[in-house]
Amino acid sequence: MSAPAEAAWQQAVELLSGADEVALACHVAPDGDALGSMLALGAALRSRGTRVVASWGGEPFEVPAAYSFLPAVDLLVPPSDFPAAPPVFVTLDTGSPDRLGSLEDRVGTSGCTVVIDHHASNTRYGGLHLVDDTSAATVVLVAALLDRMGVALTQEIAAPLYTGLVTDTGSFRYLATTPSVHELAARLLATGIRHDLIARSIYDTAPFGWVGLLGRACGRAELEVDAVAGLGLVWTVVESADLSASGLGLADVEGVIDVIRTAQEAEVAVVVKADPVAGDWKVSARSKGAVDVGLVCTALGGGGHRFAAGFSSGDDLATTLGRLRAALADAPHLPA
Ligand code: MN
What CA–CA distance (Å, rounded) separates 199 from 52? Predict the structure, then answer.
C-alpha cells in the first residue's frame, strides 16, 4: 500500500473545504492516535466555521483519563447524539467498519465516507481513501491534509497531533520514526505546546491501583520459549477481578504489554485482558520485528500493524490462547 494519490488528497480538500457540516469518528476504545487525529481535524474544521461533531461507537462513552487534557474534547458527543445520515463522514485510525462500534452503519447512510488511516489491515471501506500503511500514525496523514487545506497549526491543533505522533511511535522509538516524523514533531513543538505535560499525562500518571495491578499481571506472566516456532512467547492475563480490585477500566491497562514485552527471551508478547462490558477477551500482541503479528491477529478476526495488533475473543481463556499459539506457530516471518 503506497501513499494516497494526489487526486485523492485534492478530492478530500475540496470535500472538506466545501462542507457546512462534518461528522468524525474513530475506533472504539480510542488510543492517542485515534483521538488525536480526530480532534486535530475537528479543531481545524471548526476554526474555519464548519459545524463538527466527533465520536466513537462505544458505551459507556468516556474519554480515557490520560487524554482528557486534549483541547477540543468539547467536540465529542456520545454515539446516541451522532447524526444518523451525515452528509460528510470521516473515519480516523479505523481499519474496518466494525471497529466503529455502533457507528458502523454510518458508512452506509452517509453522503460520502472519507477514510483516513494507516493500518495495513485497512479493508478499503467507504468512498474516499487517504490510507498509507507506511505512515507512522494517522495524525501524520491529518497533518498532511491540513497543510494542503492551508490550515495554520495552532496549539489547539498541534497538541492532539503531537499526542498521536508520540503514542503511535512509542515516544519516537519504533522503526516508523522517520526524519519526517521528527520534522513534524518540530513544527508542532514550535507552536508552544507543553509536550512535557502531554507526555506526563499519557505515560507517567496513573491511580495507585495501577501499581498493584501491574505487579499482579507481571507476577503471573508465562514464558514459552518453544512457542512461535522457537522464537518464544511471553504472555499474561488481566482478569475482571484485577480491574475491579484496582478500580481501573480496560482503557487504563494498555501499558501492561509495554512491560511484558521487555522479556528478551520472547519474540512475541501477548496480554489477554478481560472486557467486563463486552464480556469477552481483548488480546494485544507485539512482536520485535521477526514475526508479522498484524497478519496473525487479522486471521483471528482482529487487525493492526505488523508489530502491534490485536483481536477480540469470545472463547474461554485456554481456547483463546490455543488458537493464538497455533496461529503464531505458522506466522509469516519477516526479513531481518
Ligand atoms: Mn494509529
Answer: 27
What is the per-residue DSSP string for 182-194?
HHHHHHHHTTT--
Interval between CA 137 and ligand 1 midpoint (Å): 5
Choose one of 152, 171, 203: the last residue of a domain.
203
Mean pLDDT of 309-322: 97
User: Could you tell me if residue 132 is inside a domain?
Assistant: yes
CA of 34 to the centre of ligand 1 (A): 6
Write the pLDDT tens digit of every residue in 67-108.
999 999 999 999 999 999 999 999 999 999 999 999 999 999
Rg of the chain over CA atoms, in angstroms? 19
Residues 102 and 224 in one domain: no
- Tell how far the Cα of 30 is from the centroid of ligand 1, in angstroms: 10
What's the gap in Å between 33 CA and the centre of ligand 1?
5
Give the global pTM.
0.91
pLDDT given for residue 207 in this prediction: 92
Range of the domain at 36: 6-203
Tell me how many domains the chain contains: 2
Instruction: Name the domain boundary from 203, 238, 268.
Output: 203
Domain presence at residue 335: no
Cis peptide before 64 (omega within 30 of 0): no
